[in-house]
């Protein structure tokens, strides 16, 4: 088939494009844009200050690498080539977080990291997913999942308090009443919730909960640590927002021992070839024992601002249904 790029990029229907442009300008003219921008400032400032004050070092994001997070669901590949070397655009900085902590004296790190995930529109709902988003991604050497959950709990309570203090007018104009949440978020296990609510337990809990809560033990990527001596049980978790806002973040202890990493990759029938350097580092003992998590920044803003559609949080629509105007 003869396929000319010029034909691909030519707008098929200029009327439809004009409507798209009108919508875009209308979105920019909405006074909520500035209120959300103010809240974004407060959220980013409080996340970064709190974490730096807790002894974390902030690293800069990595955008391309021979390997990236394989994710636990299928996405279209986001790849580029540099001098015949295939490079993947970052889906999450999971492997870089683990490797960075190999540095002597670097025990706690975080990154405000852009992620590209080309979700297939057949399998993902667009209200809570973006093709391009940012994570507040952090990792701690020698930590347990409970250490990480405790830190997230304190960090989230701090962020909510800061927003309520420094963005009260903006919240009011957005019509958002952010309650005072429990100081200690409840922890459920996915087994108990599945038994009670069936497969849709996460959404059901999110709809009925009045405060953010953790759910532990999900079967997903190979790098989330399987509970030692307990096959098919995992030291990982999600944080769920109340009021039906769904998943806030995921986190875990990590696999770091070579044999166990190979076991988990084989179990998922992964192609090991791209991971040769990572596996070699594990074999040499150069991947430390760590735990961490990544908070979806747009999801956090969506929840705080009381927006049902995640695309309403950003200026440039990156939802699955986007027209990619700009
Ligand atoms: N950043 C997440 C974590 O630390 C991983 C992810 O986004 N898939 O567990």
**SS strand fraction:** 15-25%
Average of the residue pLDDT scores: 94
- For the record, give the distance between the C-alpha atoms at the N and C termini, rounded to a whole number: 28 Å
Computed CA radius of gyration, to the nearest angstrom: 21 Å
Strand runs, count: 13
Give the helix tally.
11
Largest sheet: 8 strands, mixed
* Helix content percent band: 25-40%
- The ordered H/E elements are HHHEEEEEHEEEHHEHHEEEHHEH
Please give the order of strands in the largest beta sheet.
1-6-8-13-12-11-10-9
Bound molecules: asparagine
Gross morphology is globular
Uncertain parts: none
By secondary-structure content and strand pairing, the structural class works out as alpha+beta
Question: How are the elements arranged and paired?
Answer:
Layout: H1 5-9, H2 14-29, H3 32-53, E1 57-58, E2 64-65, E3 75-76, E4 79-82, E5 85-89, H4 94-100, E6 108-116, E7 118-119, E8 132-141, H5 145-166, H6 168-173, E9 186-189, H7 190-197, H8 201-208, E10 213-216, E11 236-241, E12 246-253, H9 258-267, H10 276-283, E13 290-296, H11 297-305
Parallel strand pairs: 1-6, 9-10
Antiparallel strand pairs: 2-5, 3-7, 4-5, 6-8, 8-13, 10-11, 11-12, 12-13
Helix pairs in contact: 3-5, 3-11, 7-8, 9-10
Verbal overview:
The chain has 326 residues and is of the alpha+beta class. It is built from eleven helices and 13 strands. The strands form three sheets. The chain has an eight-stranded mixed β-sheet, sandwiched between helices. It has a three-stranded antiparallel β-sheet with strand order 2-5-4, with no helix packed on it. Strands 3-7 form a two-stranded antiparallel ribbon. Strand 11 and strand 12 form a beta hairpin. Helix 3 crosses helix 5, helix 3 crosses helix 11 and helix 9 packs antiparallel against helix 10. It is globular and about 55 Å long. The mean pLDDT is 94. The structure holds asparagine (ASN).
């Amino acid at each position: 088939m003869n396929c000319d790029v010029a034909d691909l990029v030519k707008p098929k229907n200029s009327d439809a494009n004009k409507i798209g442009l009108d919508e875009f300008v209308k979105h920019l003219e909405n006074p909520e844009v500035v209120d959300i921008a103010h809240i974004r400032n407060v959220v980013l400032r409080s996340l970064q200050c709190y974490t730096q004050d807790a002894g974390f070092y902030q690293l800069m994001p990595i955008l391309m690498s021979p390997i990236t997070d394989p994710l636990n669901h299928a996405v279209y590949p986001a790849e580029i080539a540099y001098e015949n070397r295939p490079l993947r655009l970052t889906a999450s900085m999971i492997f870089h977080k683990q490797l960075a902590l190999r540095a002597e004296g670097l025990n706690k790190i975080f990154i405000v990291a852009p992620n590209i995930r080309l979700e297939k529109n057949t399998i993902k709902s667009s209200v809570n997913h973006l093709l391009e988003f940012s994570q507040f991604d952090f990792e701690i050497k020698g930590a347990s999942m409970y250490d990480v959950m405790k830190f997230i709990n304190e960090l989230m309570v701090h962020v909510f308090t800061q927003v309520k203090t420094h963005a009260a007018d903006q919240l009011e104009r957005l019509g958002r009443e952010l309650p005072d949440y429990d100081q200690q978020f409840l922890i459920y296990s996915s087994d108990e919730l599945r038994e009670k609510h069936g497969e849709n337990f996460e959404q059901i809990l999110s709809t009925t909960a009045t405060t953010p809560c953790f759910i532990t033990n999900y079967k997903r990527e190979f790098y989330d640590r399987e509970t030692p001596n307990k096959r098919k049980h995992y030291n990982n978790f999600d944080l769920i927002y109340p009021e039906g806002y769904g998943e806030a973040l995921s986190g875990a202890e990590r696999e770091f021992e070579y044999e166990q990493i190979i076991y988990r990759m084989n179990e998922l029938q992964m192609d090991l070839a791209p991971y040769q350097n990572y596996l070699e580092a594990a074999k040499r003992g150069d991947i430390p024992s760590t735990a961490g998590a990544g908070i979806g920044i747009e999801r956090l803003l969506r929840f705080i601002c009381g927006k049902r559609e995640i695309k309403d949080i950003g200026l440039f629509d990156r939802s699955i249904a986007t027209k990619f105007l700009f």
